[in-house]
Amino acid sequence: MQIRITTDSVNKDAALILPIEKNGHLSAVLQQIATEFDLDSQFLELDFAASAKEIMPVQGNTPTGKIRMYLLGLGENPTFATWLQVARTFFHNNRKKLPLQLQVAWSFGNRPENLPLAIEGICNGFCLGEYKIGRFKTGDDQVSTQVETSLEFLVAPSEIAQAKTSAQRGQAFAETQSTLIDLVNAPSNYKNPIDLSNWALRSSEKHQFTVRVMEKAEIEKTGLHGLLAVNRGSEYPATFTIMEYIPNGPVLKKVGLVGKGVTFDSGGLSIKPSANMHFMKSDMGGAAAVFGTLEMAAKLKLPIHLIGIVPATDNSVDALSVKPSDIISSYSGKSIEIIDTDAEGRLILADGLSYMVQNYQPEILIDLATLTGSVIRSLGYVAGGLFSNNEELSKDLISAGQRSGERLWPFPIWEEYGEMIRSDMADVKNFSGKPMAGAITAAKFLEHFIHDHTCWAHLDIAGVAMSDTEFSMQKSATAFGVRLLIDFLENLD
């Protein structure tokens, strides 16, 4: 998509898009639009309420001819997430009938309070709206056209510089998010551990950060026993990818991110029911969030020293698979009793967290994982679960979630929950064995491997890494976590 910021007037050959909030000025806005384009204001007021995602196509009149117009409802008190979602849904659902030239205008009483944020959200949404999920289809509808849509924002001369910055930012996010959506949506036979590592390598070459990939021999030598245990049942060797972005100039903070990279989760010998197992191709949503955050931090040149670690494997069924009752070691040296082989993500995260703390000593430590069904039963598909031992970090992440639209909700990690994963045979067991507090006890397990780090947060994003979207008939990837983390990093001091 070509993005332009201009001070030009309305072009009758383009489709004019007018985003409109539902507030006390709605009647005046519609009257102004009616006057400008020779429309019936009563007709507009009767048929358009400016509800979120409401679309009203009309044909206006200009001195040079008729013009296609779309009144785009934003609802009451639109947030950044509203701008993005409304624009994405509108463009994706209507792109086949829209002309190649689109204009967005604000000069009819519909100018938002925060124009730069609105431009970023709309630009991000329109660019994401181009996404097509069926990249493995062979039909003609998957052949991409060589002619790009042109999206033009009409602004005042004094607003051009800031508007360009906002539009470029929205487009940059969309480019990264689209590649992550592709990655998470891809089936496991197109997404082995080495494919995840190669994604990071390609990104690093383009955006100037460093990547080191450990393959199986080095993983064994390093002693990443949790990762090796999960990988025992797989035909594909595990990888352990370490990414590092160091900014030029002053550094505000050193932040470590660890993402769960299970490319498919059958549950191992504790095999999952078949009904929704196909969605387990998305069990590397945490890894995708870490990949995207490293890429965006480099794109935006954030003043943050950022390290990302992704342990990657699938969790398959084989004669060599780890078994319930097995006791394994870990990078930290702690022993783990395996109660449920479907609690595998925490095993690889344990190695990632321990390796991060011991080798990089980050000031802030965050892990992300599609870890438990328990968090979905608690929060549904609306928010991710937040577990933290640091109140200030927790508040900052919640605030970032509110601003970005990628929301989090806090859970307790009181010591009483730790009693549920005490083991008779090892230092800790990987599952309580009880049908309660599953997300919390998973966090308590991870806490054993942070080496008493005092600024740690675990984000369980099982319910939000995939969701119902306009792209597909069933749940598909959302790229959750990238905007959340970038917003968090940008507001560090």
In CATH terms, the superfamily of the largest domain is Zn peptidases
The coarse silhouette is: elongated
Cα gyration radius (Å): 24 Å
Class by alpha and beta content: alpha/beta
What's the pLDDT, averaged over the residues? 96
Would you give an account of this structure?
The protein is an alpha/beta fold. It has helices at residues 26-36, 41-47, 80-94, 115-129, 160-185, 193-207, 216-222, 225-231, 285-300, 345-360, 373-379, 391-404, 415-418, 438-447, 482-490, and strands spanning 2-6, 15-20, 55-62, 65-73, 101-105, 150-154, 210-214, 239-245, 253-259, 261-265, 304-315, 327-328, 336-337, 364-369, 384-388, 408-410, 428-429, 456-460, 466-467, 476-477. The chain folds into two domains: 2-160, Leucine Aminopeptidase, subunit E, domain 1 (3-Layer(aba) Sandwich); 177-490, Zn peptidases (Aminopeptidase, 3-Layer(aba) Sandwich). It is built from 15 helices and 20 strands. α8 packs antiparallel against α10. The longest helix has 26 residues, at 160-185.
Protein topology:
Layout: E1 2-6, E2 15-20, H1 26-36, H2 41-47, E3 55-62, E4 65-73, H3 80-94, E5 101-105, H4 115-129, E6 150-154, H5 160-185, H6 193-207, E7 210-214, H7 216-222, H8 225-231, E8 239-245, E9 253-259, E10 261-265, H9 285-300, E11 304-315, E12 327-328, E13 336-337, H10 345-360, E14 364-369, H11 373-379, E15 384-388, H12 391-404, E16 408-410, H13 415-418, E17 428-429, H14 438-447, E18 456-460, E19 466-467, E20 476-477, H15 482-490
Helix pairs in contact: 1-2, 3-4, 4-5, 5-9, 6-9, 8-10, 9-15, 10-14, 12-15
Brief descriptors of the model:
about 500 residues; alpha/beta; Leucine Aminopeptidase, subunit E, domain 1; Aminopeptidase; six-stranded mixed sheet; 20 strands
